[in-house]
Amino acid sequence: MSKEGRDEKGRFAEGNLFSIGIKNGRKPLIETPEELADRIAEYLEWEDSKKRPDSYSGMGKGIYTLSGCALYLGFSSKASIDDQMKRSPDFSNVINKFKLFLTHWNEQRCIGVVHSQQHNSG
């Protein structure tokens, strides 16, 4: 039994107060790393569909967030995304790549805004 009265799959172990009445635990919202990657891609497409093209780039893509992705995936917190990383190295790889993508994309957006402001203030 691992820490906090949970079994090796992260479910509440028998004898834990929170295990009362739970037979097999709740089925994970996302079952495979491939499904996680697909759902993250759906989130990005969904966010893009809600944005108007901006005047600088003409693109409809906006700033993506970890909290927005967590909500889209059906999680109740950003910590649930980190919990996915603990499931396996493959899940961890998907989440780490997504977090790196978020940083890269949002940095580019910020640089684009600063660049646009410098050229339009002139």
Keywords:
122 residues, mainly alpha, 2 domains, 4 helices
Principal-axes shape call: elongated
The low-pLDDT segments are none
Radius of gyration: 19 Å
- Helix content range: 40-55%
Most strands sheet: none
Distance between the termini: 65 Å
* Approximate strand percentage: under 5%
Structural class based on helices, strands and sheet pairing: mainly alpha
Number of DSSP-assigned strands: 0
Rounded average pLDDT? 78
Run of helices and strands:
HHHH
Word description of this protein:
This protein has about 120 residues and is an all-alpha fold. It is built from 4 helices and no strands. Helix content is about 50%, strand content about 0%. The chain is elongated and about 60 Å long.
Write the layout of secondary structure elements.
Layout: H1 33-49, H2 66-73, H3 79-85, H4 89-120
